[in-house]
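Re-run with default settings, no changes from the original entry. Doing this only to confirm the output is reproducible before filing.
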Amino acid sequence: MSGEIRNPQPELSQRQQQILKLLQAGKVNKAVAQELGIGLGTVKQHIVAIFKKLNVSNRAMAVSQSMELFNGQKNRPTTLPLADLLESRPCVVLSIALPADASHRIVKLMYGCLAASASANDAVFLARNGNAGDLIFGIQRVTEYDLAVALQAARHVYDDLLETDAETAQSLRGCLTAGIALASMQRFGGWTGEAVASAAIATARELLNEVPAGQFLFDATALDLIELFGIGGARELSPAMGFTELKKLHWTGARRAYQLVGRDAELSRLNAALTEATKGNGRLILVKGEMGMGKSSLCVAIAKRCLQQEGAVSYCRCLPPALGSALYNTVSETEYSVEEVVALLCVRPVRRPELVVLDDFNLLTKEQQIPLVAAVATAVENGKLVIFSGRTGLRENISIPAETISLHRLPTSSIQTLVRNALGKGTIKGRAQKVQRITSAAAGVPLFAVALARHHDQALALPLRVAINARLDSLRLDHTFLREVAKNSAGAHLEEVATMLGEDVETVRPQMERAVASGVLSHSVDNWLAFTHPLLRMAIGNSVVELA
C-alpha cells in the first residue's frame, strides 16, 4: 500500500494542520475532537479532506506522508503496511550530530557507535544527511529505562570521539525527546522492520537544530519521564547541559516519591522485623507486587525508620543488563558490583539495627542472584534484616527461611487520598469529578493514581503509556488477541474473539491462557474474558491505529 504526493505543497487549512499534528501524536478521532473542542463529525470531515489533499486512503499513510512534508522531503513516495499491523507506541528518540565539516572518519565512528548501541538495545538506528543520526527506543520493546539507555548511548558516542579527536568531540551536539510512534508490529510483539513514523522524530530533529555545539538538550516530555522513572545524579536537571555533565546522570530506579498510604499493616510487619534486628535476630523478607504497587515506597519508609533509630542502612537498586547489571547504593550514591554487595552482606554489623535492601531484585540475572542469596544466609546469621523487593522470581534459588509481604491493590479511600494530594491545592475545574474518575481508572494501583492525577487533563499520558507498555511488552502476549478483547469495555467471550480472528477456539485458547496467567486478563468459567485493570485495556485500545 503506497501513496505518492501529487502536489508537493498541499494547501492544508490551519485547522487541518492542527488535526494532522494530533494524528501524528497517535490521537484517535474522539481525542482530537476533545482536544480541539470541536464535534466528532467535524473531525471526520476534516480528515477526509486531509486524505484528499495528501492523496492517501488512511490515517497511517497520512501521518507518514505528513512526516515527510514537515521534514522538507516532499517528493519521496511513502510505503506503510496494512493498518491492522500498525501500533501506536511510546518511544524515546536520541538525536546526535557533528559539524558539516567533520571528517569522514569521525562521522563513520559516530555512526558505528550509534549502530552498535541500536543492536545491543533493540533500538532503531537512522543515519541521515548532515552528519546526523537518530536512535529510536521503544519500537521493538518498551522498557522503563529506555531513557537511561539512550543517555548511555550518547555518553558512549562522546567518549569514543573524545579518544579519537578531542577537538571534534567538543562540537558534538545532541538531544533527547519522547513521544508516540506508529510502527508495524508482529502479532506477538517486535517490529516487523517495515515502517516507523513518529512526530517525536521530527521534534528531535527540529530541536537538534537549536542545540549549540558541545551541548545536550532534553525536551519537556523527556524531563517528565526522567522524573518518573529514576534518572538520578544531578541535583537539578537542566534542560540543557554539556556532554561531560551527562556522566553525572545514571538510572537509580527511584520513581517519583508519593505519600505512603494504605500500607500500615505491611509497615508494621517490617517495623517488628527491625525491632528484632536491634536484638541481633536477623531475617530475610521478600516484598513482592506488580508494577506501581508501592514496593519501593515501603522499603524507603522502613529505611528511614532504621536511620531514625541510628541504625545502618544499605539501600541498593538493582540495575538491568542494559545498564551494566550493577547495583546502585542510594545511600553512598555509588554503583556496587555483585561481589561488593556480597561482601557487604557478609561483614559483621558495625551497629544495630542493620538493614540491607536489594530493590528491583528481579532485574538481575539468575547467575547474579545466586551468590547474593547465598550471602544472605550469613547476613541473617549475623543479625541483619535483609529485604529483597521485586515483581517476580523472588523465591527462586532461596533455600533459607523467608517471610513474604505481598502488596495488593489499595482500597478506594487510600487511592482517593493519593489523588487529592497529587492534584494539589490549586483551582481545578470539576475537582470532585476528577478525583472520582481518576480513582476509578487507577483501580487500586498507587503509581497509576499519582500519574493520572499529575496529568489529569489527559486520558493516558506518555509516562503511563511507557509504564504499561513496558509491562505488556515483557510478557510477549498476542497483541491481536488482546485488541479483540479490548474492543468492548465489559470484555468478550472466547468464542467471539476466535470468530473475529478467523480462528477456532482451541487455536486461540493458549493465547488466552498465557494472558490470564500473566495477570492481564481474567477468565470466568463460561469463557468470558476481561482485562484485570482498566488502564491495560485503555493502553491496548489506544495502540490500535484507527482508520477514518
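The first helix runs from residue 14 to 24. The mean pLDDT is 85.
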